[in-house]
Amino acid sequence: MVKIGPIELPDFPLLLAPMEDVSDPPFRALCKEQGADVVYTEFISSEGLIRDAAKSVIKLDIYEKERPVGIQIFGANLDSMLRAVEIVEKSNPDIIDINFGCPVKKVVSKGAGAGILKDICLMEKLTAEMVKRTKLPVTVKTRLGWDHESIKIVEVAERLQDVGIKALAIHGRTRAQMYKGNADWAPIAEVKNNPRIHIPIFGNGDINSPERAAEMRDVYGLDGAMIGRASIGNPWFFKQVKHYFETGVHLDPISMSERVNAARRHLTMAIEWKGEVLGVLETRRHYTNYFKGIPNFKPFRTKMVTSDHSIDVFKAFDEVENIFGDYQFA
């Protein structure tokens, strides 16, 4: 059993990573149904929250069926982060997560996200004060370091644990790498094997197959895996990994009817949550993966990602099911 504060999870839990414009309530619901043990919201700006910015506030929406769910916030100003904690608590999440890993320039340039990796003392101070401010378990997601020459992740883990975080997720790249090159899990294992560390250490980055998840568990000895890009348009990834863990063989390919049904439900929930315009727009990035590998599929994908009205997208789903219903996925 793995515990994040009072939250009990199965051995080697699978966590849905916080992903901007991806980890919204409809997608989190689908991933939860398919075996995600913990889901996280998109990352939310502390400055946006305290200014009541609509784009930030709507990200606080969570639903009972998602639990346990973590709300992730980012920022570099202590007062703003503490005020954001109070706002987040009103949404009653199970976990508050701090983003110290986002590599995007507009975040880093403000000293937030991975930008704070250049000031570990500030990272520690900010975390300590946030832990004091809430009774909810606080977790952190970060990267190995700012660049290859400044990797101090073992020290960072110790200092964050010492001020009270309940779990740490580490992406196996530096900020300088962005998402290029291969994730390096060895430094994450070094954190896990540090005798001073007693909180769960979750690995993130390049977990793109059940075999890779098994490697993270069995070779690197980590406490769980945080799944990001592999789940986009593929909420079944969590089920696929768990099936592989239990049986040692791959789950049968997801059928066309299952894929179309998931796409329909995804779009329906998105429209219910954000309305027609945004619901249609924000589900587009998932369709390529829902129907990945189908030959001669481009005209249908084009309809899905260019139609501005849901009725046309639903018609495209129907056409796909009728025409490709017997297609056998590898």
Helices and strands, with pairings:
Layout: E1 2-4, E2 7-9, E3 14-16, H1 25-33, E4 38-40, E5 44-45, H2 46-50, H3 54-57, E6 69-74, H4 78-89, E7 95-100, H5 105-108, H6 120-133, E8 138-143, H7 153-162, E9 167-171, H8 186-193, E10 201-204, H9 210-218, E11 224-227, H10 237-247, H11 256-274, H12 276-282, H13 284-290, H14 298-306, H15 310-324
Parallel strand pairs: 3-4, 3-11, 4-6, 5-6, 6-7, 7-8, 8-9, 9-10, 10-11
Antiparallel strand pairs: 1-2
Helix pairs in contact: 1-11, 4-6, 9-10, 11-12, 11-15, 13-14, 14-15
Structure, explained:
Strand 3, helix 1 and strand 4 form a beta-alpha-beta unit. The protein has 15 helices and eleven strands. The protein folds into two domains: 2-247, TIM Barrel (Alpha-Beta Barrel), CATH 3.20.20.70; 256-324, Non-ribosomal Peptide Synthetase Peptidyl Carrier Protein, Chain A (Orthogonal Bundle). Helix content is 43%, strand content 14%. With 330 residues, it is α/β, with parallel strands linked by helices.
